Amino acid sequence: MTVVIGVDPHKSTHTAAALDAGTHKVLETIRIDATVPEYRRLLLWAKRFPERGWAVENAWGLGRHLAQWLIAHGEKVTDVPSTATARVRELSRGGRRKNDNIDAAAAASVAALHGDAMPVEAEGASTVLRMLDERRTNLTRQRTRTVNQLHAVMRELLPGGVSTDLTAGQAADTLRRVRPSSPVEHARKDLARDLVADVRALDARLKANQQRMQDTVAESGSCLLDVVGVGPVVAARLLGRTGRASRFRTAGAFAVHTGTAPIEIASAGKSRHRLSRHGDRQLNNALHTIALTQMRMSGTRGRVYYDGKVSEGKSHKEAMRCLKRRLCDHVWRIMIADERRLSPEAGSGGHPGATTKSCAADPTPSIGTSDKSLPEPATAKTTATTSPAA
User: Global pTM?
Assistant: First the structure.
């Protein structure tokens, strides 16, 4: 008898329900505290079911710690979105009854039906890169606030202030030439020195952060750094926020996730396309950075593609939309190829039907971005005469 153990996680407690996968009958339930000793008690309780699997609701949220602990102990875990358990509750009971036992059983039912549940894997390089990307974002924001404060102090200390592109070294040289004439100006100069020291410390942390990103991307075996316009920061964002690329069935599905899939709209009897304002905006920003870099580099295949769209009569924005869409396909194919090269069995972890076919075969056309007569976006190997990747 195959048993699916559904888990409804909360901050301080977890509720588990063992469900017969064949009859969808709840066999037993258990409630534990969110502590490691209680995790051991839960696993000991589950071992009475030799053929078992786990379905954790929101396994990347409140259930992350338990899900990763179970995987580390050799258990098979799937992630069930809370929206799927809500549908099961509504359809099976016809009402809004809700408690922890019902939620746990609903999560198990979703996994038993092979619905929206997705396999959960042990955290790896993508998790590290996502954390590094988030850390870099926070450091960058902190540096921006510090530099703005430094400019404000320098403006009060010097007539006319200083240049907007001031570096920490230039600010330090400027402060050496300042001769305060009052206690207030002495305080301003001391504050400016503290801010310069803060900027230098943040610059050092950002540099170390970028180096660790580069090392982690290299250790992961990804080929994204071979693409012109993809540096360590962009590669870390793409890998960290995408995770397992095979979870997207097609390049079109990945484009929808990144917000690069065009949307057809009609106005005043005319039809046109624009980019979606939905999707992961951080991934969208990474793809925009790649497109902008390739467009600005003469001789790259991305620039050739952009010029071809402009010669067809498209505006700059329309050509950039096409280039971003094409690059989205290209990046997805690279990540899929990396998965298959580094882990041949990776195809079974995400969508089993994931394919690297061109989006020209997708049901939704994408304003000509898959015209096979046009070149693929450039890579560092195919554009040896151009500048190296960022």
Answer: 0.76
Say how far apart CA 333 and CA 379 lie, in whole Å: 13
SS3 assignment, position 365: coil
Q: What residue spans of 221-375 are helical by DSSP H?
A: 232-242, 251-258, 281-296, 301-311, 316-342
Q: Please check whether residues 245 and 178 belong to one and the same domain.
A: no
Interhelix angle 301-311/316-342, rounded to 10 degrees, is 140
Tokens of residue 50, six digits: 């030799």
Q: Has residue 371 been placed in a domain? A: no
| Nearest one of 355, 348, 310 to 332, comparing CA atoms | 355
pLDDT tens track for 267-317:
766 777 777 778 899 999 999 999 999 999 988 899 999 999 999 999 998
Number of domains in the chain: 3
Same domain, 142 and 72: no
User: In a 3-state reduction of DSSP, which class is residue 230?
Assistant: coil
Kindly state the tokens that stand for 337.
């190829």
